[in-house]
Amino acid sequence: MNSPGTCNVAFVGAGSMAREHLKAFRDVPGVALRGIHSRTRARAEALAAEFGIGGVHDSVDELYAETRADLVVVAVPELSTNAMCHACFGHSWILLVEKPVGYDFEDASAIEKAARDRGRNVRVGLNRRFYSSTRTALEDLGRSSAPRFIHVQDQQNQAAALASGQPELVVRNWMYANSIHLIDYLRVFGRGPVTSVTPVMVWNASTPGVVLATVEFASGDRGLYEGIWHGPGPWAVTVSTAECRWEMRPLEQAAFQNAGERWHNDVEVHAWDREFKAGFRAQAEEVVRAVRGEPSTVPTISESLETMALVKAIFAS
Question: Which pTM does this prediction carry?
């Protein structure tokens, strides 16, 4: 029996990302892990045994019928997300779907439309929004109305992605599968809607190299995306104002430099980002708030589609 006041969570998928979500949700007070479904039953059974989950189910319909979960976490490969989301939309639970929700913008748009048509509450696991580095920088920057300049540095290698076993269709759209991690930072730190995107060094799918684009926001904030494809480069984010400069390199580690200083002040990483996959523990708690009808900062599927649209605009060829 499901206990009153308990947030009952079910899981679709049994890979490494599902395991990280299981670990995070298990730690949130008032959460019960109720069931799991995966096309590979043996992997689901292994996770169920590891995390003390009572039920392994052969379909999404069975998962819902036998758990009556409040929340389902969908963590499946990109090419399976559409079908699994549609299966989950048939029931009244809230969804947390791993990004990207769709292997390209058109696929993501179709999933988002289906969610709206069915009236489903779908949240998207853009977990870097929940890094302690990101949250600390946002809190500090929020004290000032000064214009912001956001510089996002990305590095991608499609050959390495193919060699690791990623499907060709996913690799062809690797900016949605992987660059989304970095490009979402532009929307995290940039205030207001995006008003313009101007490619400076244009994406060429046949010979990927350097991609540069400027992004402007209604608030007056400006951003620069810098992507190095098939060459060395960092994953890094800086946000500069007249008063301070925040830097995240690596993304999990934040440091700030105040006006008039010549040194960086490191900020301690929260224990959750050391004990769990970074961002997952804070994200899980925020998703549970949404399930309980409380304000939650986990982006909706419509909000995540805005990031997918930004990816599409930056990589316009």
Answer: 0.96
